[in-house]
User: What shape does this take?
Amino acid sequence: MAVPTDRKYSKTHEWYKADGNVVTVGITEFAANQLTDITYVQLPQAGAKLDAGAEIGEIESVKATSPLYTAVGGEVVEANDGLNDKPETVNQDAFEAGWMIKVRAADMGPLDGLMDAGQYEAFMASEG
Assistant: This one.
């Protein structure tokens, strides 16, 4: 599994891709594979205010229900509403079409404390 190098990663297996001050958030392919068949994704709606480090929703699979977190705080500018009808998109394309939310970050600083692709790959190896 190739880990994209254009984003940052958290220990809770979310990825963060910055475009200016808007950060796209999703879960990693590793996390999607661990969950197996994803059946439901609960996300905040556009306009919601998020705190850095807060739980922002949950993802359900045939195996487990897991919380979703955000490392960056700010305002949700878009949620991937396509996941309402097709949550399996996260399994099929976690790093692109399976993104969760886009946040206009109040502070980009928390991204500095996250892992790059190489660090995340080492972290996954230590987890497995």
User: Anything to note?
Assistant: The chain has a mean pLDDT of 96. The two ends are 14 Å apart (CA to CA). Strands lie at 8-9, 14-19, 22-27, 38-42, 49-50, 55-61, 65-69, 74-79, 101-105. The chain has four helices and nine strands.
